[in-house]
Design goal:
Length: about 625
Protein backbone atom coordinates (compact mmCIF):
# COMPACT_ATOMS: atom_id res chain seq x y z
CA UNK A 1 0.00 0.00 0.00
CA UNK A 2 2.77 2.40 0.91
CA UNK A 3 4.56 1.57 -2.31
CA UNK A 4 1.51 2.32 -4.43
CA UNK A 5 0.90 5.59 -2.56
CA UNK A 6 4.53 6.54 -3.06
CA UNK A 7 4.32 5.88 -6.79
CA UNK A 8 1.03 7.77 -7.05
CA UNK A 9 2.56 10.77 -5.28
CA UNK A 10 5.51 10.81 -7.67
CA UNK A 11 3.14 10.50 -10.64
CA UNK A 12 1.25 13.60 -9.43
CA UNK A 13 4.53 15.51 -9.03
CA UNK A 14 5.53 14.45 -12.56
CA UNK A 15 2.28 15.81 -13.99
CA UNK A 16 2.85 19.09 -12.15
CA UNK A 17 6.39 19.28 -13.54
CA UNK A 18 5.05 18.80 -17.07
CA UNK A 19 2.36 21.49 -16.77
CA UNK A 20 4.69 24.41 -17.72
CA UNK A 21 5.75 22.49 -20.84
CA UNK A 22 2.11 21.95 -21.78
CA UNK A 23 1.48 25.68 -21.45
CA UNK A 24 4.52 26.46 -23.62
CA UNK A 25 3.12 24.19 -26.34
CA UNK A 26 -0.31 25.82 -25.98
CA UNK A 27 1.22 29.28 -26.33
CA UNK A 28 3.21 28.05 -29.31
CA UNK A 29 0.06 26.79 -31.01
CA UNK A 30 -1.09 30.43 -31.19
CA UNK A 31 2.15 31.56 -32.82
CA UNK A 32 1.89 32.91 -36.37
CA UNK A 33 4.23 34.04 -39.09
CA UNK A 34 6.07 37.30 -38.54
CA UNK A 35 9.01 39.19 -39.99
CA UNK A 36 11.17 37.13 -42.33
CA UNK A 37 9.04 34.01 -41.87
CA UNK A 38 7.09 35.13 -44.92
CA UNK A 39 10.26 35.37 -47.00
CA UNK A 40 11.69 31.99 -46.04
CA UNK A 41 8.48 29.99 -46.25
CA UNK A 42 7.22 31.53 -49.49
CA UNK A 43 10.59 30.86 -51.13
CA UNK A 44 10.42 27.32 -49.75
CA UNK A 45 7.06 26.83 -51.45
CA UNK A 46 8.43 28.27 -54.67
CA UNK A 47 11.79 26.47 -54.87
CA UNK A 48 11.50 23.40 -52.60
CA UNK A 49 14.01 22.44 -49.85
CA UNK A 50 17.16 22.16 -52.00
CA UNK A 51 16.30 25.11 -54.20
CA UNK A 52 15.48 27.24 -51.19
CA UNK A 53 18.87 26.55 -49.59
CA UNK A 54 20.65 27.29 -52.90
CA UNK A 55 18.68 30.48 -53.53
CA UNK A 56 19.47 32.04 -50.16
CA UNK A 57 23.08 30.81 -50.24
CA UNK A 58 23.62 32.79 -53.44
CA UNK A 59 21.60 35.82 -52.40
CA UNK A 60 21.98 36.44 -48.66
CA UNK A 61 22.99 33.69 -46.24
CA UNK A 62 24.91 30.41 -46.20
CA UNK A 63 22.88 28.68 -43.46
CA UNK A 64 21.97 25.75 -45.67
CA UNK A 65 20.13 23.61 -43.09
CA UNK A 66 18.01 26.55 -41.96
CA UNK A 67 16.64 27.21 -45.44
CA UNK A 68 16.36 23.53 -46.25
CA UNK A 69 14.15 23.12 -43.17
CA UNK A 70 12.00 26.05 -44.28
CA UNK A 71 11.55 24.35 -47.61
CA UNK A 72 10.44 21.15 -45.86
CA UNK A 73 7.98 22.93 -43.59
CA UNK A 74 6.67 25.39 -46.19
CA UNK A 75 3.50 23.30 -46.81
CA UNK A 76 2.53 23.96 -43.17
CA UNK A 77 2.19 27.64 -44.08
CA UNK A 78 0.73 29.60 -41.15
CA UNK A 79 0.85 26.55 -38.82
CA UNK A 80 4.65 26.22 -39.04
CA UNK A 81 5.29 28.40 -35.97
CA UNK A 82 3.08 26.29 -33.71
CA UNK A 83 4.42 22.97 -34.96
CA UNK A 84 8.07 23.90 -34.41
CA UNK A 85 7.42 24.84 -30.75
CA UNK A 86 6.00 21.38 -30.05
CA UNK A 87 8.93 19.73 -31.84
CA UNK A 88 11.49 21.75 -29.87
CA UNK A 89 9.85 21.01 -26.51
CA UNK A 90 9.55 17.28 -27.20
CA UNK A 91 13.05 16.90 -28.66
CA UNK A 92 14.66 18.98 -25.91
CA UNK A 93 12.94 17.09 -23.10
CA UNK A 94 13.61 13.70 -24.67
CA UNK A 95 17.27 14.55 -25.31
CA UNK A 96 17.89 15.76 -21.77
CA UNK A 97 16.19 12.74 -20.18
CA UNK A 98 18.20 10.44 -22.43
CA UNK A 99 21.43 12.27 -21.60
CA UNK A 100 20.83 11.99 -17.84
CA UNK A 101 20.25 8.23 -18.11
CA UNK A 102 23.15 7.69 -20.52
CA UNK A 103 25.60 9.68 -18.40
CA UNK A 104 24.81 7.50 -15.40
CA UNK A 105 25.77 4.48 -17.47
CA UNK A 106 28.88 6.19 -18.86
CA UNK A 107 30.13 7.10 -15.39
CA UNK A 108 29.13 3.72 -13.90
CA UNK A 109 26.30 4.97 -11.75
CA UNK A 110 22.97 3.29 -11.13
CA UNK A 111 20.32 4.72 -13.40
CA UNK A 112 17.89 6.99 -11.53
CA UNK A 113 14.13 6.32 -11.63
CA UNK A 114 12.55 7.33 -14.94
CA UNK A 115 10.01 9.65 -13.28
CA UNK A 116 12.74 11.65 -11.54
CA UNK A 117 14.75 11.81 -14.76
CA UNK A 118 11.83 13.13 -16.81
CA UNK A 119 11.07 15.69 -14.10
CA UNK A 120 14.64 17.02 -14.23
CA UNK A 121 14.58 17.14 -18.03
CA UNK A 122 11.22 18.92 -18.10
CA UNK A 123 12.37 21.45 -15.49
CA UNK A 124 15.52 22.16 -17.51
CA UNK A 125 13.43 22.92 -20.58
CA UNK A 126 10.83 25.20 -19.00
CA UNK A 127 13.44 27.05 -16.94
CA UNK A 128 15.54 27.54 -20.09
CA UNK A 129 12.50 28.83 -21.99
CA UNK A 130 11.64 31.12 -19.07
CA UNK A 131 15.18 32.50 -19.14
CA UNK A 132 15.11 33.42 -22.85
CA UNK A 133 15.99 37.06 -23.49
CA UNK A 134 12.81 37.29 -25.56
CA UNK A 135 9.93 34.85 -26.13
CA UNK A 136 10.57 35.40 -29.84
CA UNK A 137 13.42 32.89 -29.49
CA UNK A 138 10.82 30.13 -29.42
CA UNK A 139 7.55 31.69 -30.69
CA UNK A 140 9.10 33.46 -33.71
CA UNK A 141 9.47 30.66 -36.26
CA UNK A 142 12.69 31.83 -37.92
CA UNK A 143 14.40 32.59 -34.59
CA UNK A 144 13.23 29.29 -33.08
CA UNK A 145 14.52 27.17 -35.97
CA UNK A 146 17.80 29.07 -36.22
CA UNK A 147 18.71 29.50 -32.55
CA UNK A 148 16.66 27.21 -30.28
CA UNK A 149 16.08 24.06 -32.33
CA UNK A 150 19.87 23.52 -32.80
CA UNK A 151 20.35 23.49 -29.02
CA UNK A 152 17.75 20.72 -28.71
CA UNK A 153 19.28 18.77 -31.62
CA UNK A 154 22.77 19.01 -30.14
CA UNK A 155 21.50 17.75 -26.78
CA UNK A 156 19.93 14.72 -28.48
CA UNK A 157 23.17 14.08 -30.40
CA UNK A 158 25.28 14.26 -27.22
CA UNK A 159 22.85 11.95 -25.46
CA UNK A 160 23.23 9.42 -28.26
CA UNK A 161 27.03 9.66 -27.95
CA UNK A 162 26.90 9.08 -24.18
CA UNK A 163 24.61 6.09 -24.77
CA UNK A 164 26.76 4.38 -27.40
CA UNK A 165 30.28 5.24 -26.20
CA UNK A 166 30.30 2.32 -23.70
CA UNK A 167 28.60 -0.02 -26.19
CA UNK A 168 30.73 0.38 -29.31
CA UNK A 169 33.49 -2.23 -29.32
CA UNK A 170 34.61 -2.83 -32.92
CA UNK A 171 36.40 -0.22 -35.04
CA UNK A 172 33.86 -0.64 -37.85
CA UNK A 173 30.93 0.23 -35.60
CA UNK A 174 32.86 3.12 -34.07
CA UNK A 175 33.53 4.60 -37.52
CA UNK A 176 29.86 4.24 -38.48
CA UNK A 177 28.67 5.84 -35.21
CA UNK A 178 31.13 8.73 -35.55
CA UNK A 179 30.03 9.28 -39.16
CA UNK A 180 26.40 9.58 -38.02
CA UNK A 181 27.35 12.00 -35.25
CA UNK A 182 29.47 14.02 -37.69
CA UNK A 183 26.51 14.24 -40.09
CA UNK A 184 24.21 15.49 -37.31
CA UNK A 185 26.84 18.02 -36.18
CA UNK A 186 27.30 19.18 -39.80
CA UNK A 187 23.56 19.63 -40.38
CA UNK A 188 23.08 21.30 -36.99
CA UNK A 189 25.85 23.82 -37.66
CA UNK A 190 24.15 24.67 -40.95
CA UNK A 191 21.18 26.03 -39.01
CA UNK A 192 23.07 29.09 -37.76
CA UNK A 193 26.62 30.39 -37.93
CA UNK A 194 26.22 31.79 -34.40
CA UNK A 195 25.19 28.43 -32.92
CA UNK A 196 27.87 26.82 -35.08
CA UNK A 197 30.47 28.92 -33.26
CA UNK A 198 28.97 27.83 -29.93
CA UNK A 199 29.04 24.18 -31.01
CA UNK A 200 32.68 24.56 -32.08
CA UNK A 201 33.58 26.02 -28.68
CA UNK A 202 31.67 23.28 -26.86
CA UNK A 203 33.37 20.44 -28.71
CA UNK A 204 36.79 22.08 -28.42
CA UNK A 205 36.60 22.47 -24.66
CA UNK A 206 35.29 18.89 -24.37
CA UNK A 207 38.57 17.53 -25.76
CA UNK A 208 40.55 17.94 -22.50
CA UNK A 209 37.44 16.95 -20.54
CA UNK A 210 37.62 13.51 -22.15
CA UNK A 211 40.96 12.85 -20.42
CA UNK A 212 39.90 14.15 -17.02
CA UNK A 213 36.27 13.05 -16.73
CA UNK A 214 35.67 9.95 -18.86
CA UNK A 215 36.72 6.51 -17.50
CA UNK A 216 39.88 5.23 -19.13
CA UNK A 217 38.29 2.38 -21.11
CA UNK A 218 35.84 4.77 -22.81
CA UNK A 219 38.28 7.54 -23.72
CA UNK A 220 39.12 6.26 -27.21
CA UNK A 221 35.49 6.17 -28.25
CA UNK A 222 34.77 9.53 -26.62
CA UNK A 223 37.71 11.17 -28.34
CA UNK A 224 36.63 9.76 -31.72
CA UNK A 225 33.14 11.21 -31.33
CA UNK A 226 34.41 14.65 -30.29
CA UNK A 227 36.97 14.86 -33.11
CA UNK A 228 34.44 13.78 -35.74
CA UNK A 229 31.99 16.40 -34.48
CA UNK A 230 34.69 19.06 -34.53
CA UNK A 231 35.68 18.25 -38.11
CA UNK A 232 32.05 18.34 -39.26
CA UNK A 233 31.41 21.64 -37.46
CA UNK A 234 34.47 23.30 -39.01
CA UNK A 235 33.49 22.00 -42.47
CA UNK A 236 29.96 23.39 -42.13
CA UNK A 237 31.23 26.77 -40.92
CA UNK A 238 33.59 26.98 -43.90
CA UNK A 239 30.77 26.15 -46.30
CA UNK A 240 28.61 28.87 -44.80
CA UNK A 241 31.42 31.43 -44.67
CA UNK A 242 32.22 30.94 -48.37
CA UNK A 243 28.61 31.38 -49.53
CA UNK A 244 28.29 34.07 -52.24
CA UNK A 245 25.46 35.71 -50.35
CA UNK A 246 27.59 36.38 -47.25
CA UNK A 247 29.10 39.51 -48.79
CA UNK A 248 25.60 40.88 -49.42
CA UNK A 249 24.56 40.10 -45.87
CA UNK A 250 27.62 41.79 -44.38
CA UNK A 251 26.97 44.81 -46.56
CA UNK A 252 23.47 45.06 -45.06
CA UNK A 253 25.06 45.57 -41.63
CA UNK A 254 27.63 48.00 -42.98
CA UNK A 255 30.57 45.65 -42.44
CA UNK A 256 33.60 45.68 -44.72
CA UNK A 257 33.61 42.36 -46.62
CA UNK A 258 37.41 42.23 -46.40
CA UNK A 259 37.12 42.17 -42.61
CA UNK A 260 34.06 40.12 -41.63
CA UNK A 261 34.62 40.66 -37.92
CA UNK A 262 34.64 44.14 -36.48
CA UNK A 263 37.84 44.84 -34.61
CA UNK A 264 37.34 47.95 -32.56
CA UNK A 265 38.86 49.36 -29.43
CA UNK A 266 35.49 49.25 -27.69
CA UNK A 267 34.77 45.59 -28.53
CA UNK A 268 36.25 44.30 -25.25
CA UNK A 269 34.28 46.65 -22.94
CA UNK A 270 31.11 45.95 -24.93
CA UNK A 271 31.61 42.21 -24.50
CA UNK A 272 32.14 42.71 -20.75
CA UNK A 273 28.98 44.80 -20.57
CA UNK A 274 27.11 42.12 -22.50
CA UNK A 275 28.27 39.38 -20.10
CA UNK A 276 27.55 41.52 -17.06
CA UNK A 277 23.97 41.93 -18.28
CA UNK A 278 23.57 38.15 -17.99
CA UNK A 279 24.69 38.14 -14.36
CA UNK A 280 22.02 40.64 -13.33
CA UNK A 281 19.24 39.14 -15.45
CA UNK A 282 16.43 38.01 -13.12
CA UNK A 283 15.15 35.26 -15.41
CA UNK A 284 18.61 33.78 -15.95
CA UNK A 285 19.30 33.71 -12.22
CA UNK A 286 15.88 32.13 -11.72
CA UNK A 287 16.80 29.40 -14.22
CA UNK A 288 20.00 28.66 -12.29
CA UNK A 289 18.56 28.73 -8.77
CA UNK A 290 15.38 26.94 -9.84
CA UNK A 291 17.32 24.02 -11.31
CA UNK A 292 19.61 23.97 -8.27
CA UNK A 293 16.63 23.71 -5.90
CA UNK A 294 14.85 21.08 -7.99
CA UNK A 295 17.94 18.85 -8.19
CA UNK A 296 18.63 19.21 -4.48
CA UNK A 297 15.09 18.18 -3.62
CA UNK A 298 14.96 15.22 -6.03
CA UNK A 299 18.41 13.92 -5.14
CA UNK A 300 18.13 14.37 -1.36
CA UNK A 301 14.99 12.23 -1.34
CA UNK A 302 17.23 9.22 -2.03
CA UNK A 303 19.57 9.92 0.87
CA UNK A 304 20.92 7.00 2.87
CA UNK A 305 20.72 7.44 6.62
CA UNK A 306 22.77 4.39 7.55
CA UNK A 307 26.54 4.44 7.89
CA UNK A 308 27.99 2.35 5.05
CA UNK A 309 31.73 2.80 5.47
CA UNK A 310 34.10 3.73 8.30
CA UNK A 311 34.81 7.39 8.90
CA UNK A 312 38.32 8.26 7.69
CA UNK A 313 38.26 11.97 8.34
CA UNK A 314 35.70 14.16 10.10
CA UNK A 315 34.20 17.09 8.27
CA UNK A 316 36.38 20.16 8.78
CA UNK A 317 36.12 23.76 7.65
CA UNK A 318 38.85 24.37 5.03
CA UNK A 319 40.66 27.70 4.80
CA UNK A 320 40.89 28.32 0.98
CA UNK A 321 37.10 28.46 0.32
CA UNK A 322 36.69 30.83 3.25
CA UNK A 323 39.46 33.11 2.00
CA UNK A 324 37.92 33.09 -1.48
CA UNK A 325 34.61 34.34 -0.10
CA UNK A 326 36.33 37.02 1.97
CA UNK A 327 38.39 38.21 -1.00
CA UNK A 328 35.39 38.43 -3.34
CA UNK A 329 33.31 40.31 -0.76
CA UNK A 330 36.14 42.82 -0.32
CA UNK A 331 36.54 43.24 -4.09
CA UNK A 332 32.81 43.85 -4.42
CA UNK A 333 32.75 46.60 -1.79
CA UNK A 334 32.85 49.47 -4.35
CA UNK A 335 29.72 48.11 -6.04
CA UNK A 336 27.79 48.28 -2.78
CA UNK A 337 29.10 51.39 -1.08
CA UNK A 338 29.37 53.94 -3.89
CA UNK A 339 26.31 55.99 -4.84
CA UNK A 340 23.85 53.40 -6.08
CA UNK A 341 21.76 55.25 -8.63
CA UNK A 342 20.45 58.62 -9.76
CA UNK A 343 16.98 57.14 -9.98
CA UNK A 344 14.90 58.41 -7.04
CA UNK A 345 12.66 55.34 -7.21
CA UNK A 346 15.56 53.01 -6.39
CA UNK A 347 15.36 54.10 -2.76
CA UNK A 348 11.60 53.98 -2.55
CA UNK A 349 10.15 51.44 -0.10
CA UNK A 350 11.21 48.70 -0.03
CA UNK A 351 14.79 49.93 -0.53
CA UNK A 352 16.66 47.10 -2.31
CA UNK A 353 19.96 48.99 -2.30
CA UNK A 354 19.90 49.42 1.49
CA UNK A 355 19.00 45.76 1.91
CA UNK A 356 21.98 44.77 -0.23
CA UNK A 357 24.25 47.02 1.85
CA UNK A 358 22.96 45.24 4.95
CA UNK A 359 23.56 41.86 3.33
CA UNK A 360 27.13 42.86 2.50
CA UNK A 361 27.81 43.95 6.09
CA UNK A 362 26.29 40.75 7.47
CA UNK A 363 28.22 38.47 5.12
CA UNK A 364 31.52 40.23 5.76
CA UNK A 365 31.02 40.13 9.53
CA UNK A 366 30.01 36.45 9.42
CA UNK A 367 32.97 35.48 7.25
CA UNK A 368 35.37 37.37 9.51
CA UNK A 369 33.92 35.69 12.61
CA UNK A 370 34.12 32.24 11.00
CA UNK A 371 37.69 32.89 9.93
CA UNK A 372 38.73 33.95 13.44
CA UNK A 373 36.90 31.04 15.05
CA UNK A 374 37.71 28.39 12.45
CA UNK A 375 39.86 26.31 14.80
CA UNK A 376 37.15 26.31 17.46
CA UNK A 377 34.50 25.36 14.88
CA UNK A 378 36.64 22.46 13.68
CA UNK A 379 37.12 21.32 17.27
CA UNK A 380 33.36 21.31 17.78
CA UNK A 381 32.94 19.28 14.59
CA UNK A 382 35.44 16.74 15.92
CA UNK A 383 33.42 16.30 19.11
CA UNK A 384 30.01 16.32 17.39
CA UNK A 385 30.55 15.34 13.74
CA UNK A 386 26.82 15.20 13.00
CA UNK A 387 26.77 19.02 13.04
CA UNK A 388 28.70 19.18 9.75
CA UNK A 389 25.45 19.80 7.83
CA UNK A 390 25.15 23.25 9.39
CA UNK A 391 27.78 24.46 6.90
CA UNK A 392 25.86 23.65 3.68
CA UNK A 393 22.52 24.51 5.32
CA UNK A 394 23.63 28.01 6.34
CA UNK A 395 25.42 28.64 3.04
CA UNK A 396 22.42 27.64 0.97
CA UNK A 397 20.20 29.72 3.26
CA UNK A 398 22.31 32.78 2.48
CA UNK A 399 22.24 31.93 -1.25
CA UNK A 400 18.45 31.72 -1.30
CA UNK A 401 18.17 34.98 0.67
CA UNK A 402 20.43 36.75 -1.81
CA UNK A 403 18.42 35.28 -4.67
CA UNK A 404 15.30 36.77 -3.11
CA UNK A 405 17.01 40.18 -3.07
CA UNK A 406 17.88 39.82 -6.76
CA UNK A 407 14.17 39.41 -7.58
CA UNK A 408 13.13 42.70 -5.98
CA UNK A 409 11.75 45.37 -8.27
CA UNK A 410 13.87 48.48 -8.50
CA UNK A 411 17.21 46.91 -7.61
CA UNK A 412 19.89 48.74 -9.62
CA UNK A 413 22.57 47.09 -11.70
CA UNK A 414 25.36 47.58 -9.14
CA UNK A 415 23.43 45.92 -6.34
CA UNK A 416 22.24 43.17 -8.68
CA UNK A 417 25.82 42.49 -9.79
CA UNK A 418 26.94 42.22 -6.17
CA UNK A 419 24.11 39.79 -5.37
CA UNK A 420 24.83 37.54 -8.38
CA UNK A 421 28.58 37.44 -7.77
CA UNK A 422 27.99 36.61 -4.12
CA UNK A 423 25.58 33.78 -4.99
CA UNK A 424 27.94 32.08 -7.41
CA UNK A 425 30.98 32.61 -5.17
CA UNK A 426 29.26 31.05 -2.15
CA UNK A 427 28.11 28.04 -4.16
CA UNK A 428 31.55 27.54 -5.64
CA UNK A 429 33.14 27.82 -2.20
CA UNK A 430 30.68 25.27 -0.78
CA UNK A 431 31.51 22.78 -3.54
CA UNK A 432 35.20 23.46 -2.95
CA UNK A 433 34.67 22.78 0.75
CA UNK A 434 33.20 19.35 -0.05
CA UNK A 435 36.09 18.68 -2.38
CA UNK A 436 38.58 19.29 0.46
CA UNK A 437 36.61 16.90 2.67
CA UNK A 438 36.64 14.06 0.15
CA UNK A 439 40.29 14.68 -0.64
CA UNK A 440 41.21 14.52 3.06
CA UNK A 441 39.12 11.36 3.47
CA UNK A 442 41.03 9.59 0.73
CA UNK A 443 37.94 9.30 -1.45
CA UNK A 444 38.25 9.94 -5.17
CA UNK A 445 35.46 12.29 -6.10
CA UNK A 446 34.81 13.76 -9.53
CA UNK A 447 31.83 15.93 -8.66
CA UNK A 448 33.90 19.08 -8.10
CA UNK A 449 35.73 18.52 -11.40
CA UNK A 450 32.33 18.03 -13.06
CA UNK A 451 31.21 21.43 -11.79
CA UNK A 452 34.40 23.09 -12.98
CA UNK A 453 34.02 21.56 -16.43
CA UNK A 454 30.33 22.43 -16.60
CA UNK A 455 31.03 26.08 -15.87
CA UNK A 456 34.04 26.10 -18.19
CA UNK A 457 32.18 24.50 -21.08
CA UNK A 458 29.08 26.66 -20.79
CA UNK A 459 31.09 29.78 -19.96
CA UNK A 460 33.50 29.48 -22.90
CA UNK A 461 30.65 28.68 -25.28
CA UNK A 462 28.62 31.63 -24.01
CA UNK A 463 31.67 33.87 -24.40
CA UNK A 464 32.09 32.71 -28.00
CA UNK A 465 28.44 33.54 -28.67
CA UNK A 466 28.73 36.97 -27.08
CA UNK A 467 31.91 37.91 -28.97
CA UNK A 468 30.44 36.82 -32.30
CA UNK A 469 27.11 38.44 -31.50
CA UNK A 470 28.79 41.73 -30.62
CA UNK A 471 31.41 41.69 -33.37
CA UNK A 472 29.10 40.93 -36.29
CA UNK A 473 26.63 43.74 -36.71
CA UNK A 474 27.97 45.63 -33.69
CA UNK A 475 24.73 45.10 -31.76
CA UNK A 476 23.02 42.68 -29.45
CA UNK A 477 20.54 40.26 -31.01
CA UNK A 478 18.29 39.21 -28.16
CA UNK A 479 16.52 36.45 -30.05
CA UNK A 480 19.71 34.45 -30.75
CA UNK A 481 20.67 33.99 -27.08
CA UNK A 482 18.82 30.71 -26.55
CA UNK A 483 22.01 28.91 -25.52
CA UNK A 484 22.63 31.42 -22.72
CA UNK A 485 19.42 30.58 -20.87
CA UNK A 486 20.06 26.86 -21.32
CA UNK A 487 23.63 27.32 -20.04
CA UNK A 488 22.36 28.93 -16.83
CA UNK A 489 19.75 26.22 -16.28
CA UNK A 490 22.23 23.44 -17.06
CA UNK A 491 24.85 24.92 -14.71
CA UNK A 492 22.23 24.97 -11.95
CA UNK A 493 21.49 21.34 -12.76
CA UNK A 494 25.16 20.34 -12.41
CA UNK A 495 25.56 22.33 -9.17
CA UNK A 496 22.40 20.83 -7.67
CA UNK A 497 23.37 17.28 -8.60
CA UNK A 498 26.89 17.74 -7.24
CA UNK A 499 25.77 19.31 -3.95
CA UNK A 500 23.14 16.63 -3.37
CA UNK A 501 25.63 13.89 -4.21
CA UNK A 502 28.20 15.36 -1.79
CA UNK A 503 25.65 15.70 1.02
CA UNK A 504 24.43 12.13 0.52
CA UNK A 505 28.00 10.82 0.44
CA UNK A 506 28.95 12.53 3.70
CA UNK A 507 25.73 11.28 5.28
CA UNK A 508 26.62 7.75 4.17
CA UNK A 509 30.19 7.76 5.49
CA UNK A 510 29.90 9.91 8.64
CA UNK A 511 27.39 10.50 11.40
CA UNK A 512 24.21 11.15 9.38
CA UNK A 513 22.84 14.67 9.76
CA UNK A 514 19.22 13.72 9.19
CA UNK A 515 17.45 16.86 10.42
CA UNK A 516 19.61 19.41 8.57
CA UNK A 517 19.40 17.27 5.44
CA UNK A 518 15.62 17.14 5.69
CA UNK A 519 15.59 20.91 6.21
CA UNK A 520 17.65 21.32 3.02
CA UNK A 521 15.32 18.98 1.14
CA UNK A 522 12.11 20.69 2.25
CA UNK A 523 13.62 24.15 1.83
CA UNK A 524 14.62 23.28 -1.72
CA UNK A 525 11.11 21.97 -2.37
CA UNK A 526 9.62 25.28 -1.19
CA UNK A 527 11.94 27.34 -3.42
CA UNK A 528 11.33 25.05 -6.41
CA UNK A 529 7.56 25.20 -5.88
CA UNK A 530 7.58 28.99 -5.65
CA UNK A 531 9.54 29.28 -8.91
CA UNK A 532 7.35 26.66 -10.60
CA UNK A 533 4.19 28.51 -9.54
CA UNK A 534 5.44 31.90 -10.74
CA UNK A 535 6.43 30.50 -14.16
CA UNK A 536 3.19 28.56 -14.50
CA UNK A 537 1.14 31.61 -13.56
CA UNK A 538 3.07 33.84 -15.96
CA UNK A 539 2.50 31.44 -18.87
CA UNK A 540 -1.17 31.03 -17.98
CA UNK A 541 -1.64 34.81 -17.94
CA UNK A 542 -0.19 35.01 -21.48
CA UNK A 543 -2.65 32.50 -22.95
CA UNK A 544 -5.55 34.99 -23.45
CA UNK A 545 -3.18 37.49 -25.09
CA UNK A 546 -1.86 34.85 -27.51
CA UNK A 547 -5.42 33.67 -28.23
CA UNK A 548 -6.52 37.21 -29.14
CA UNK A 549 -3.49 37.62 -31.37
CA UNK A 550 -3.96 34.34 -33.26
CA UNK A 551 -7.70 34.95 -33.67
CA UNK A 552 -7.18 38.46 -35.06
CA UNK A 553 -4.30 37.28 -37.25
CA UNK A 554 -6.32 34.40 -38.71
CA UNK A 555 -9.42 36.53 -39.31
CA UNK A 556 -7.42 39.16 -41.18
CA UNK A 557 -5.52 36.46 -43.11
CA UNK A 558 -8.68 34.64 -44.19
CA UNK A 559 -10.34 37.94 -45.14
CA UNK A 560 -7.53 38.86 -47.51
CA UNK A 561 -7.39 35.38 -49.07
CA UNK A 562 -11.17 35.25 -49.47
CA UNK A 563 -11.23 38.64 -51.20
CA UNK A 564 -8.51 37.52 -53.57
CA UNK A 565 -10.24 34.27 -54.36
CA UNK A 566 -13.25 36.30 -55.42
CA UNK A 567 -11.07 38.51 -57.61
CA UNK A 568 -11.18 41.48 -55.22
CA UNK A 569 -8.26 43.25 -53.58
CA UNK A 570 -8.67 45.36 -50.48
CA UNK A 571 -7.92 49.03 -51.13
CA UNK A 572 -6.92 49.55 -47.50
CA UNK A 573 -5.70 46.29 -45.93
CA UNK A 574 -6.59 45.93 -42.23
CA UNK A 575 -3.70 46.32 -39.83
CA UNK A 576 -3.34 44.51 -36.52
CA UNK A 577 -3.04 46.66 -33.41
CA UNK A 578 0.58 47.21 -32.48
CA UNK A 579 0.02 46.25 -28.86
CA UNK A 580 -2.01 43.11 -29.56
CA UNK A 581 1.00 40.93 -28.73
CA UNK A 582 3.16 42.45 -25.99
CA UNK A 583 6.37 40.44 -26.07
CA UNK A 584 9.84 42.00 -25.83
CA UNK A 585 12.31 41.76 -28.68
CA UNK A 586 13.48 43.32 -31.90
CA UNK A 587 10.42 42.02 -33.79
CA UNK A 588 7.69 42.98 -31.33
CA UNK A 589 5.76 44.87 -34.06
CA UNK A 590 6.75 42.74 -37.04
CA UNK A 591 3.91 40.25 -37.11
CA UNK A 592 2.42 42.07 -40.09
CA UNK A 593 2.80 41.12 -43.76
CA UNK A 594 3.87 44.65 -44.60
CA UNK A 595 6.76 44.66 -42.15
CA UNK A 596 8.66 41.81 -43.78
CA UNK A 597 11.98 42.97 -45.22
CA UNK A 598 13.36 40.28 -47.50
CA UNK A 599 16.17 42.21 -49.19
CA UNK A 600 15.01 40.60 -52.45
CA UNK A 601 12.65 42.09 -55.02
CA UNK A 602 11.86 38.61 -56.31
CA UNK A 603 10.77 37.23 -52.92
CA UNK A 604 8.98 40.48 -52.05
CA UNK A 605 6.96 40.09 -55.23
CA UNK A 606 6.02 36.54 -54.26
CA UNK A 607 4.92 37.71 -50.80
CA UNK A 608 2.80 40.46 -52.30
CA UNK A 609 1.15 37.96 -54.57
CA UNK A 610 0.52 35.45 -51.75
CA UNK A 611 -0.13 37.53 -48.63
CA UNK A 612 -0.46 41.24 -49.23
CA UNK A 613 -3.61 42.91 -50.38
Amino acid sequence: MLGSRHRAAWAVVLVLALLPLMLIVILGSHGRLMGDDFCHLISGLEYGPWGNALYWRNSLNGSFSFYFLHGLTAPLDTQAAGVIVAIIVLAWTFGLAWMILACHQLFRRDRPPLIRTVMMAAALVWLAVHGLATPLSIYFYSAATRHTLPVAIFVVALAACCEYIPRVQSVRRLVAACAIFALVAFVNTGMSEVLGAVQLALLTILLPAVYTMIPREFRRNSLAFVISGLAATVAALLIMATAPGVAKRLAMFGIDTDSPLRVRADLFPKVLEHIQSFLIDRELNTAFIGMLAICLFLMLTVQRSAQTSPVRKPFQLALPPLLLCLLVQLLLLPLVWIHQSDDQFVFAPPPPAYMVVGANISILASLAAIHLGRQRINALLLNRPENWAAIPALTLGVVITLFGLSQLQGINWRAATYVSCSIYTLLFALLWQFHFHFQASGKKSRFFAAVLWAFTVTGVSALALVVLNQAIGDRQFTYNLSFISFAFAFSGFICGISLAYAINQVNATAAPAIRPTLALMYGSAIVATAIWFSILLGNAENVPQFERFSRAWDERHQLILAKRKGGERLATPPRLAKDILKIPGDFRDKYDYWQSNCASDEITGLIKDRYRA
